[in-house]
Write a structure and sequence with these properties.
The chain has 29 helices and 22 strands. The protein is α+β, with helices and mostly antiparallel strands. Strands 3, 4, 5, 6, 7 and 8 form a 6-stranded mixed sheet that branches. The protein has a 5-stranded mixed sheet with strand order 10-9-13-11-12. The C terminus is likely disordered. 40% of the residues are buried.
């Protein structure tokens, strides 16, 4: 904002509490006296008093083009205060400083901003760089203007040191959460500063351009202000990549007549739509420098039609599809280039139909089809909404309306801004906030998933590439520390599962409030909210980072005589009483229906009747042997517990088994795979009737999602 302002008194070496460069201890100034001196002069009459100062005539013209009935009196008063308070200050270029707020206001006026935004834009540097106080702005111009001016006012380095820049952005973003116009003024302010950045030292140019690239341009994209975004991209491109910029500039200059190819196609499209009776305006829209550079990297050598796109503007939504139908009927469509952002608008309010068609001579033209209203929003984004808080009903159809609790709701709050405002509160220091902010803004795509179970069903907006970890923290906050897994589209899924647009997700939380995240969760977390929460918990519990959750453990060495346990009797004519043992593949227990087969050595292996191995033996011609359960109720069984990995899981499972009176004969724990762990237990039960209760007790252990009888032989352990 004021990076280029210089104060003659300050440069002369003024010090002390009354130095103009400091806000502390400044005396109050008489705004009315300054206003009369600046605007009217000593003997001004009524006729002069009602005239707008010539210096903002162009702002007034641009404003009236969008708002013909606008009252310009408040702009006149704001200009008087801004000019008077900045008088004597100059920019690094030597221009009077008032040229900067005027330029910022003009940028917003051309985008269609309403009067309150323009008033705040004229005054946006007064509290920061002059003796005007926020209380005075509030008294003269009201709550809204004062809020906007305060939102874009920088924090002083004398108070915050190196943290001043990230904390200033944090302050602006929080203010934007209540009024999106704060960021609109900031973007226009940065655009004008970037336009005049050439007077700065090269290293400062690079630093400002990098922040613009990493923070301001993504914010402009998310707020839908494409007109500012594209110019900022070109200005940053010129500073950070001067060689590529010059090559692109030369390429565009060398193809000055490239637009002729598109002009021919535009004329054909216009004639086609006239014949079809579709009222439309067809324009050739040149690509900006960065766009040309990207297309060249994608396609290599460029043709004339690659230097621009056709823009078709119509009156109604239905006309957009009528234009699309005519184009695809009379030209050859490039199917892979078709996108419908009308039926499914982008998260930044953008709506348009995108397609590409091939002319008879082989030239391919990209075409954008939208209504005039869509075009205004595409160019100006939230700026085109005017004041989104002016008495609308709070409904789902009116984004930006006041909420039921009276708080203002940003038009984009249901998505990225809500997430940003949530996680920034947990950022422990400016460096973490600054790093997380850049990482968050670098994710320029968004998905919507549906949540079920635990809380009110609804939707969650997440960046593309988000996982179940991110969904858990977005839905449950710090309670997600105890997340064991998730159901995605009704199926159990590990926390590392990457979610897709439209998925239904239900995080599964442990009942144990002491459970915490594993260090591996950081590998799956994509949102700053999840990463900050996980990192904070791990730092508070350093012992967890040293012991991975559900680490593989060696097989227990406890074994028992296979002939012990449940007594089985086989009826095998012509032989002595054979050795009988239950099969390891299905581990039958009373009162299962069973059958037996003679195996090598003359012993009999007993299977459940429905066992797949028993079916295989029958198909191979093996004769079954009749077997019966003995009198004893004791039995041995092998159970498999499927669970999500967490600390103390093995201890909790063995405790549940012991509580039910079962003895562990053997146990194995397979290495975790995608946060899931398989436990296999061979157990001795004093009574087979207790098996259902034992399995229920094991399923009730937090983290366990299934317990079943073994169906296959356990894999040999190394």
């Amino acid at each position: 904002m004021s990076a280029e302002a210089t104060n003659p008194v300050s440069e002369a070496g003024a010090t002390g509490p009354d130095a103009p460069g400091r806000r502390r201890g400044r005396p109050r100034i008489d705004l009315r006296r300054l206003g009369r001196a600046a605007l009217l002069g000593a003997t001004a009459g009524p006729a002069i008093r009602d005239r707008l100062p010539d210096a903002i005539g162009h702002v007034a013209d641009a404003h009236r083009a969008h708002h013909p009935e606008a009252d310009l009196a408040v702009l006149r008063r704001a200009y008087v205060l801004a000019e008077s308070s900045h008088r004597g200050q100059t920019r690094k270029s030597g221009e009077p400083y008032i040229t900067h707020p005027l330029a910022v206001t003009l940028i917003l006026a051309e985008l269609g901003a309403e009067t309150t935004t323009l008033t705040a834009a004229l005054l946006h540097d007064t509290v920061e760089d002059t003796e005007v106080t926020l209380d005075q702005v509030h008294t003269e111009f009201g709550d809204e203007v004062a809020y906007l001016v305060d939102g874009v006012t920088k924090l002083e380095k004398v108070d915050y040191g190196a943290a001043a820049e990230p904390e200033t952005f944090r302050k602006m973003l929080v203010a934007t959460g209540n009024d999106v116009r704060v960021m609109s003024i900031k973007l226009a302010d940065r655009l004008h500063n970037m336009r005049t950045l050439g007077v700065m030292r090269p290293e400062k140019q690079v630093r400002i351009a990098q922040v613009t690239r990493d923070v301001l341009i993504p914010l402009a994209e998310r707020l839908g202000v494409q007109a500012l975004k594209t110019e900022l991209e070109d200005l940053v491109f010129a500073i950070l990549h001067p060689e590529e910029y010059e090559a692109t500039r030369a390429l565009i200059a060398g193809n000055a007549g490239a637009g002729d190819a598109l002009a021919v196609i535009a004329e054909q499209v216009s004639g086609l739509l006239r014949e079809a009776g579709v009222g439309a305006e067809v324009l050739v829209r040149p690509r900006h420098f960065v766009s040309v550079h990207r297309v060249r990297l994608k396609r290599g050598e460029l043709r004339g039609s690659d230097f621009g796109r056709l823009l078709v503007l119509v009156a109604e939504d239905a006309d957009c599809y009528a234009v699309l139908g005519e184009l695809h009927t009379c030209f050859t469509p490039v199917v892979s280039e078709f996108k419908d952002f009308i039926a499914a608008p982008k998260f930044n309010l953008y709506q348009s139909l995108h397609t590409a068609v091939a002319a008879p001579d082989g030239a391919v033209a990209e075409v954008l089809i939208r209504t005039h209203q869509m075009h205004q929003v595409a160019e100006a984004g939230v700026v085109a909404l005017g004041n989104p808080y002016s008495g609308q009903e709070a409904t789902e159809q009116a984004p930006g309306a006041p909420g039921d609790d009276g708080e203002r709701v940003d038009p984009t709050r249901p998505g990225w801004l809500s997430r940003l405002l949530d996680w920034q509160q947990s950022a422990p220091d400016p460096d973490t906030f600054w790093t997380s902010l850049r990482a968050d803004l670098a994710q320029d795509q968004e998905i919507t998933v549906f949540r079920t179970g635990g809380g009110t069903p609804g939707t969650i907006s997440l960046p593309a590439g988000a996982t179940c970890v991110d969904a858990a923290y977005a839905q449950h906050g710090e309670a997600a520390h105890g997340c064991l897994g998730a159901r995605v589209n009704g199926r159990l899924a590990p926390l590392s599962t990457v979610l897709q647009d439209g998925d239904t997700v239900q995080p599964l939380l442990a009942q144990d409030s002491t459970s915490g995240p594993a260090p591996q969760w950081l590998d799956h977390a994509r949102t700053p909210a999840a990463r900050i929460a996980i990192t904070g918990w791990l730092q508070a519990h350093p012992e967890t980072a040293k012991i991975p959750a559900a680490a593989p453990r060696p097989a227990a060495g406890v074994t028992a005589d296979r002939r012990s346990g449940t007594r089985l009797r086989a009826e095998l004519p012509g032989t002595d009483t054979p050795a009988v043992r239950p099969a390891g593949c299905c581990t039958p227990v009373p009162p299962d229906e069973i059958t037996g087969f003679v195996v090598r050595g003359g012993s009999v292996t007993v299977h459940r009747t429905a066992c797949a191995s028993a079916d295989t033996m029958r198909r191979l011609g093996r004769s079954p042997v009749t077997v019966h359960w003995g009198d004893t109720a004791a039995c041995r069984v092998t159970l498999v517990a499927e669970s999500f990995g967490r600390p103390r899981l093995l201890a909790d499972l063995t405790e549940a088994i012991a509580t039910e009176g079962a003895a562990v004969v053997a146990a194995t724990v397979e290495p975790p795979s995608e946060q899931r762990v398989r436990h296999t237990y061979t157990l001795q039960l004093p009574d087979a009737a207790g098996l259902p209760a034992l399995m229920r007790a094991m399923r009730d252990v937090p983290g366990v999602y299934d317990v079943s009888r073994a169906k296959h032989p356990a894999s040999p352990r190394p």
